[in-house]
Structures are given as structure tokens and as C-alpha cells.
Backbone:
């Protein structure tokens, strides 16, 4: 299947882009270049699609259910009891709502951590997106549940031919003990799978880890051999400078979730330390119960503005003085696109010849994109995800107005 996108804005100029067999083949081809499908894109800009690197898709079912609460109370008193009542059919409905929301907002990939994964996999297949599906690990799971997960991984066959991968997803240091954390990491590495975990989301998590293990979550996980380039660590809000250096040295990918962190009052992500460390930083939405949307464009804007509006010293103390140059639009766009793609081994996230054709078309004629002195600035700071007019994943149009 080939696609010719004609007269689209790429950077500061208009061009024609030829996509063939899932790859951006040539940029700057003639108007009459042969293609099976033509998209007339005058009045549109092309951008890389989004890669949502931390999500609990089916939690769209809990959107607005328990707002304005701290994380531990939110989880223990509301979220976990509600989740105990969910059926596989419920999870399928929640995941479908989530995936359709993500597609319409320009996301072609999500890194999920939830239950009822066979239903979510079926939806990913039918809706044409990409996903890394987490096999959730917690201490309170029965042996029968654990055995079922082992059997699932051992017999898994990707129905999409390459758009789905699996991850082993121990929830956190406060829900998974040392022995199971170590076994989970070993299991993932033996299978060549990613590892997905929450790390240092709240100050309480850090304090509890200090009491139980005598050190902080990052240092603790490093001491047991858990950290590595196959790990995707969500949140990392309460991480000091030495810990950031550990994360960078181990090649850990960090998924920053600004909207969820702010809504749950978890704290400010230490942008200065994170950027200085050189660690790979990506963006995630978290679940719709703590965000309350799955809008990656919104995450870009909030991340950049939160970075600028207040600064932190190396001792993590916040000071009432910002830095407007911190995390510019082009950098946060890379966090949301290329960095996420690279973290999962997808050669995408850029509109360039030879890259995987995961891209979106954004309407330049809307008020929020007018005038267009700088398309990237407009997309990050002023647009909305409603301005996405077409989504292409793996060289196929999966949504279009």
C-alpha cells in the first residue's frame, strides 16, 4: 500500500511525501508520483505521531470517579476496590474507549499496564495501532493467576505481525516484594521483553522504601539488579541527582506524566536534574482516572510550562523563580514522539526518509493554529488535539476526517 501526501507543510516549507510499505520512502516527489492513495494536504502540517509510554487504558472506566485525592487514598479507598468488580467485558469497553481517544488525538502507540490483556490485544489488532501490553505483577495475585500469566507469555503470538509487544510490569516497590521484583526482571530478560514499573511517584513511596529497605526506590532497584536499558520507569518525581545519574547510566527510559502528577499532587518532576543526567525522557498520560484524558498534545504543553514556571535546586527544594528557556517546544515534542518510539525499538518519531510512517496531519486553518510563524510552537503551545485530521500508523491511514 502506497500513499502520496501532496502539498503538506513540513517544517517551514511545503512538499509531497511518498509512503510505501509502511516507510517514508521519498520527500519532495512530483505531484504525479504514482501511488495507490492520494491525500490532498494543502492547509495541513505533518508531524510525527505520539507514543504514550505510560498508560492504563481501561481506566477510562474510572474517569471522574474519584477526583481531588492523594495517591494512596485514591488507590486504596477507591480505585482498587472498583477494579475488583470489573469484568473482562468491562475492560474491553474501557480499552476501546481509550484507544479510540488516543487515535483521535494523534497517538499510534501506548505502553499499557492493566488486566484483561487478551481483550486489549484484540482491540489493538482491529484498530490498527501499536502497543506494548504489560503483564501486571503484584504480590497479592494468586498462584493460579501467576501461572496463567506465565502460560500466556509462553504461548503468545502477535496477531498484528509486529505492532504488539509484551512487557513484564511489576507495579511498584510498594506492591511487589524483592524476590518477585528480581524474578520478574529475570523472566522479562529471558524472554527479551520490556519491563514497566512505577518508580518514586510520591514522597510517601520514597519514605516507605527508606523505612523498609534503608534506601530510596532507585537505589534499591539498582542494588538488586533490576534497572537496565529494558526498563521503562513511570513518574520518577522524587528522584535526586545521584539517582538520575544511575537511571542514565543504566539506560532506563523515564516516562514523565505531568498531568497525572499535578492532579494527584505528587510533586514537580525535577526537569533540571533529569535533563542534565542525559537519561532518555518520554511522555505518558497515565490513566484517565488520574488525568483525566489521554491527550498527549496536552501533556507536551503542561510539561513544558511546568518546567518553566518554577525551578528546583539540587536538593529538590522548589524556589519561586522560573526559567523560560527550559524545555523548549522542539525538545518536548521529541520527548512525545522520537524518544518514545526509540525506547520501544520503533524507527520512527521523525518525518524523514527511511523512517517508519507513523505520522499525523494537523489542520492549519483553525484559529488555534493561526498565524503559523512556527508550526512546532503552535502545535505544542496553542493547538488542541481536535485539530488532528488524519492519523497514519505503519503506513496505513487508521483515522481521517
Residues:
Amino acid at each position: 500500500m502506497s500513499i502520496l501526501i501532496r502539498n503538506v507543510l513540513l517544517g517551514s516549507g511545503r512538499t509531497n511525501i511518498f509512503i510505501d510499505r509502511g516507510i517514508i520512502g521519498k520527500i519532495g516527489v512530483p505531484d504525479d508520483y504514482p501511488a495507490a492513495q492520494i491525500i490532498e494536504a494543502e492547509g495541513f502540517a505533518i508531524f510525527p505521531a505520539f507514543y504514550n509510554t505510560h498508560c492504563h487504558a481501561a481506566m477510562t472506566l474510572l474517569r471522574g470517579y474519584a477526583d481531588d485525592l492523594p495517591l494512596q487514598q485514591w488507590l486504596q479507598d477507591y480505585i482498587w476496590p472498583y477494579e475488583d468488580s470489573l469484568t473482562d467485558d468491562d475492560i474491553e469497553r474501557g480499552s476501546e474507549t481509550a484507544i479510540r481517544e488516543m487515535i483521535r488525538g494523534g497517538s499510534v502507540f501506548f505502553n499499557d499496564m492493566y488486566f484483561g490483556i487478551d481483550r486489549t490485544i484484540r482491540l489493538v489488532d482491529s484498530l490498527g495501532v501499536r502497543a506494548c501490553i504489560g503483564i501486571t505483577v503484584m504480590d497479592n495475585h494468586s498462584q493460579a493467576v501467576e501461572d496463567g500469566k506465565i502460560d500466556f507469555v509462553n504461548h503468545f503470538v502477535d496477531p498484528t505481525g509486529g505492532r504488539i509487544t509484551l512487557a513484564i510490569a511489576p507495579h511498584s516497590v510498594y506492591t511487589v516484594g524483592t524476590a518477585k521484583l528480581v524474578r520478574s526482571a529475570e523472566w522479562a530478560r529471558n524472554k527479551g521483553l520490556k519491563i514497566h514499573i512505577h518508580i518514586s511517584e510520591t514522597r510517601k513511596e520514597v519514605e516507605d522504601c527508606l523505612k523498609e529497605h534503608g534506601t530510596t526506590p532507585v537505589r534499591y532497584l539498582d542494588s538488586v539488579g533490576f534497572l537496565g536499558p529494558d526498563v521503562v520507569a513511570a513518574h520518577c518525581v522524587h528522584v535526586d541527582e545521584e539517582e538520575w545519574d544511575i537511571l542514565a547510566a543504566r539506560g532506563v527510559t523515564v516516562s514523565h506524566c505531568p498531568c497525572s502528577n499535578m492532579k494527584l499532587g505528587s510533586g514537580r518532576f525535577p526537569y533540571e536534574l533529569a535533563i542534565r543526567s542525559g537519561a532518555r525522557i518520554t511522555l505518558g498520560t497515565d490513566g484517565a482516572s488520574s488525568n483525566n484524558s489521554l491527550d498527549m498534545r496536552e501533556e507536551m504543553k503542561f510539561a513544558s510550562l511546568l518546567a518553566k514556571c518554577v525551578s528546583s535546586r539540587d536538593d529538590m527544594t522548589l524556589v519561586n523563580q522560573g526559567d523560560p528557556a527550559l524545555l523548549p517546544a522542539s525538545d518536548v515534542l521529541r520527548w512525545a514522539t522520537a524518544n518514545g518510539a526509540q525506547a520501544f525499538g520503533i524507527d520512527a518519531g521523525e518525518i524523514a526518509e527511511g523512517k517508519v510512517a507513523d505520522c499525523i496531519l494537523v489542520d492549519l486553518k483553525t484559529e488555534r493554529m493561526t498565524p503559523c510563524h512556527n508550526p512546532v510552537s503552535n502545535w505544542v503551545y496553542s493547538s488542541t488535539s481536535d485539530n488532528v485530521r488524519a492519523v497514519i500508523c505503519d503506513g496505513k491511514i487508521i483515522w481521517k476526517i
